[in-house]
Design brief:
The protein is of the alpha+beta class. It folds into two domains: about 180 residues, BirA Bifunctional Protein, domain 2, CATH 3.30.930; about 45 residues, no CATH class. The strands form two sheets. A seven-stranded mixed β-sheet has the order 1-2-3-7-6-5-4, with helices on both faces. Strands 8-9-10-11 form a four-stranded antiparallel β-sheet, with no helix packed on it. Strand 10 and strand 11 form a beta hairpin. It is globular and about 50 Å long. The termini are far apart.
Length: about 240
């Protein structure tokens, strides 16, 4: 795959037909001291792809499966919002209008089209992302969709635009990232569930924390302690 613009020329692409997991391969590079900033691990398919909370990521041929390696000075939870906005903007450039389900799942018409797993190792952040292009899994837990249902695009086009948008939003002020994320956020200003209780989802603050409201009281919530789902959807699942 050729990458022909300035932003892409900064990246090193390592491509496989099929490996267990691009994320695991990236972690191995870090552990072996072979990781470099702006490395992209891509696979046509994965036999053991994984998402958040060790969930299996179904990884058939035809979709984009990548893990980005970036060198960092310190961990920053706000990067989750950066990558979500970058993916969403990529789809928008293809004429597909997404929403973002906290923190970085990407939905189209309420159906999941992309998910991201972020991990840290030594002085690197590893961002594993899957975008459904040609196929989408049939799951009991939630509905999925694919880009081909809306537009005809190639994997190389998606990757090029995604890298461009990651570079753009990484260099942006977080205040701009925050505003764009909230523009696209699913469930904003509605009732969601937090730790089993209904609360109002107000937004995110400059530190990347969720702003929630219970009655007249506002409070912040951080990290993977949060499990958010609209009460209506949860009721329909039971």
């Amino acid at each position: 795959m050729k990458m022909g613009c300035t932003a892409l020329e900064k990246y090193k692409l390592i491509s496989f037909d099929k490996i267990p997991s691009t994320q695991n391969y990236a972690l191995e590079l870090v552990e072996k001291g072979l990781a470099k900033d702006r490395t992209v691990i891509m696979a046509e398919a994965q036999s053991s792809g994984r998402g958040r909370y060790k969930r299996k990521w179904v990884s058939h041929h035809g979709n984009l499966y990548v893990s980005f390696i970036y060198e960092i000075e310190e961990r920053d939870p706000r990067f989750s919002y950066v990558i979500a906005v970058a993916i969403a903007e990529t789809l928008i450039e293809f004429g597909v209008m997404p929403t973002i389900k906290w923190p970085n799942d990407i939905l189209v018409n309420g159906k999941k089209i992309s998910g991201t797993l972020i991990e840290y190792a030594k002085n690197f952040i590893i961002i594993g992302t899957g975008i459904n292009i040609k196929t989408n899994p049939t799951l009991d837990s939630y509905q999925t969709t694919k880009l081909e249902d809306y537009v005809s695009v190639s994997k190389s086009e998606v990757l090029k635009k995604l890298i461009h948008n990651i570079e753009k939003w990484r260099s942006a002020e977080f205040s701009d990232v925050r505003l764009r994320w909230m523009d696209l956020a699913a469930g904003l200003n509605s009732v969601v569930k937090y730790q089993g209780e209904p609360v109002d989802f107000i937004g995110i603050n400059e530190s990347g924390a969720l702003i929630l409201r219970r009655g007249k009281n506002y409070f912040f919530a951080y990290g993977d302690e949060i499990s958010m789902q609209t009460p209506e959807k949860e009721k329909n699942k039971s």
